[in-house]
Specification:
It is built from 10 helices and 2 strands. The protein is mainly α. The protein folds into 2 domains: 104 residues, no CATH class; 104 residues, Orthogonal Bundle (Arc Repressor Mutant, subunit A).
Length: 231
């Protein structure tokens, strides 16, 4: 399950789950492998947030990477090397995992077919984009307006919106709303807190305001969404 949608797990496919994305996995085959990591684990710090932003792996929106037999053969040595290193007692085990994980991600990224319009286009980059996303992660419960983030970045709200749209085809306001909803869904899934309690935790003083916001963003009422998750 990814963001309340159910998908089958099929052979020779890889699902990339972004940080904060609501998901639940029910293993069906002994051959399944899960790699879960945070960049701070690795000694060389070569897998950074900036590196992950450059990849197109974690914005698949419910679509797995489907592999050919040749793709599987090329990726398996990295999986095996990471597994062997993880189980070893070598002082360089995390270095080995970091190196093979980075190569694994790069090779997976090369297998994603690019849209025709972006074949010869370089993705727009601006340092403020990563800083904005980092601020959202740290101040999600306090700042619900783009103006707050623009002020923290010493940018005008208009300029922040402009560069964010160029980089993501999305407004910073819609990104911020999506992150609030993702956190709300996570709390619905993993806690038994009420609408009022979740809304208050996310910085909404008025539960009715939070209820309207949730329905506007998801198309479902808070209660209907909770029932759909646990039915």
């Amino acid at each position: 399950m990814v963001d309340s949608h159910i998908y089958p797990i099929c052979p020779k496919t890889i699902w990339f789950i972004a940080p904060g994305e609501i998901h639940c996995i029910q293993p069906t085959q002994p051959q399944e492998v899960m790699i879960q990591f945070i960049p701070e684990l690795f000694p060389a710090k070569s897998i950074t947030g900036e590196f992950l932003e450059r990849l197109d792996l974690f914005s698949s929106h419910g679509h797995p990477l489907v592999l050919s037999d040749d793709d599987v053969a090329a990726l398996m040595p990295h999986l095996m090397a990471m597994t062997d290193a993880f189980l070893s007692s070598s002082p360089f085990r995390m270095d080995v995992i970091e190196a093979h994980l980075k190569l694994f991600l790069i090779e997976c990224n090369s297998l994603i077919p690019l849209p025709e319009h972006s074949q010869n286009e370089e993705k727009f980059q601006h340092p403020a984009i990563a800083l904005f996303k980092d601020l959202v992660g740290r101040h999600l419960r306090e700042w619900h307006k783009v103006d707050d983030y623009a002020e923290a970045l010493c940018l005008s709200p208009h300029y922040l919106s402009e560069i964010f749209r160029m980089a993501t085809d999305q407004s910073p306001k819609s990104y911020l709303s999506a992150q609030i909803i993702a956190e709300a869904k996570r709390m619905i899934l993993f806690t038994d807190l009420s609408l009022k309690e979740i809304g208050y935790d996310l910085g909404f003083d008025d539960s009715a305001h939070f209820s309207r916001f949730f329905k506007l963003q998801t198309g479902m009422s808070f209660q209907d969404f909770r029932l759909s998750i646990f039915k």
